[in-house]
Amino acid sequence: MRGRYALGEAYRLASLDRLGALLAPSYHCVTMLDPALALGAEIHLYPLHADLSPDLVALDRLFTRIRKPVKALLATHYFGITQNFSGLREWCVEREIALIEDCSHVLFTERFRAAGSGIDGHFVVSSPYKFFPCADGGLLYAADAQLLDKVATNSASLSEELRGIKRIIERRQCKQLSASDSAAIDSQLALISAKHAAAGNDEMVERSAPSAFFFRRFSRQGLPAQLALCH
């Protein structure tokens, strides 16, 4: 239904399970890790630079400390800004690690793609529903098309189909933003950016199971506008 389930399939195709490990960015949403936790995999968080690009030096140090075989590495394009993952791709290839490119926050579909997105990943996942008027949507792409040949999705129920149509209609009836609404948002953002940033509190939370945002029953479930397996 969402990119998190396409991501889960990418983890599975990368042979990630309880015997293997995932390298994931330290800055992330819990739903990026939920599918790996559902597979019982060990997760290690790697540091990022200030521009949110992977810190390859720190990644090297982390990799040498991991006991289980690292099966996959997740790399993300944040806030609509594409990163250059070519160096990271080489790093993964040298160590026989599947690079999974997360394009959930940049436009990536079979026909329309943000420049620089989906280039380096062995697998690429995206969330078209964030950019197009559909209730849900997750896309899984593989550079090697044959990797997807044996992937099959389960059809959603009629009630789930109808629920998706209902959500689309409801969103269409919502009030549209006017020029004055956009100007008001810009003014609020200007006020926020003018203030000095307050220091936050770091908190470590360890989880051994997926969060409440992950539903195992939706894994491998497909709808015309929900999970697209793209060669």
Automatic annotation (TrEMBL):
InterPro entries referenced in this protein's UniProt entry, alphabetically:
DegT/StrS_aminotransferase, PyrdxlP-dep_Trfase, PyrdxlP-dep_Trfase_major
A Pfam family per the record: DegT_DnrJ_EryC1
Gene3D superfamilies cross-referenced by the UniProt entry: Type I PLP-dependent aspartate aminotransferase-like (Major domain)
Q: Give an example GO molecular function.
A: transaminase activity
Q: Keyword set for this entry?
A: Aminotransferase, Transferase
This protein is called DegT/DnrJ/EryC1/StrS aminotransferase family protein
User: What is the organism field in this record?
Assistant: Candidatus Accumulibacter phosphatis
